[in-house]
Amino acid sequence: MGRFLIVTKNGNDAELVEKIRHSLDCHTLDQGIEYDGIIVLGGDGTVLRTIASYRNPPAVYAVNRGRVGFLCPIPHTAIDELIGRLRNGKRIELVEVKRLCLSKKHYFLNDAVIRPSSIGLGTFKIFIDDISLVLRGDAVIVATKTGSSAYNASLNGPLLLNEGMVVNVVAPNNCRFKPIVCGIGTRVRVEVDRDAQIILDGVLCEEESFDVCYDGSSVRFGHLGHYDQSKRIEELFLL
């Protein structure tokens, strides 16, 4: 049995936390030590905030206590099974999910958004490896494979079934623009004609440059059953 960190949404689920602590060696505050896993009780936002500070986080066992729970593959009704497997050292399938890096120090699992700080269209110069283009719009999004089903999808962007990234524009002034699908090894850089904000996984990031690449970082999510990506997408989008 290893040592685990428990993270909850706004300190909720006190009774459930005590149940887990009674069965496993757990901390509810990060002690700055090496953990064998992180047990997250919450929704997608809780998961994203938890892993943001790790370059290579421990295995994440995300128990869905939110609404959508795309990043929370363990139903809350299976918490006893999860505790039992962790306590007895039984096998739990770990699915590796790649994430992208911004400016060599910030990580995002869903998407990075750059937009003007003030209201109005911005002029964006987008560099995709050796290709460059100039577009006007409200914002530019770079989404991961995982994030392609989030903000990008609401803009009619494509769902990625293989590793890669999507470059999309919010409200482009050129109606002929189509989202650009890139390989995972692509480098994307964006410049804006005025002061801009950068948002990573829904959180404002104090960073001036927008330079995205894949540097090998990933997150491993625990699954109690066999992971079927196609079935997961069907469940969430009612395809």
UniProtKB/TrEMBL annotation:
GO MF annotation, one: NAD+ kinase activity
Keywords from UniProt, A to Z, are: ATP-binding, Cytoplasm, Kinase, NAD, NADP, Nucleotide-binding, Transferase
Q: Name one Pfam family in it.
A: NAD_kinase
Instruction: Read off the SUPFAM superfamilies from this record.
Output: NAD kinase/diacylglycerol kinase-like
Give the record's GO biological process terms.
Answer: NAD+ metabolic process; NADP+ biosynthetic process
Q: What family is this?
A: Belongs to the NAD kinase family.
Q: What is this protein called?
A: NadF-like NAD kinase
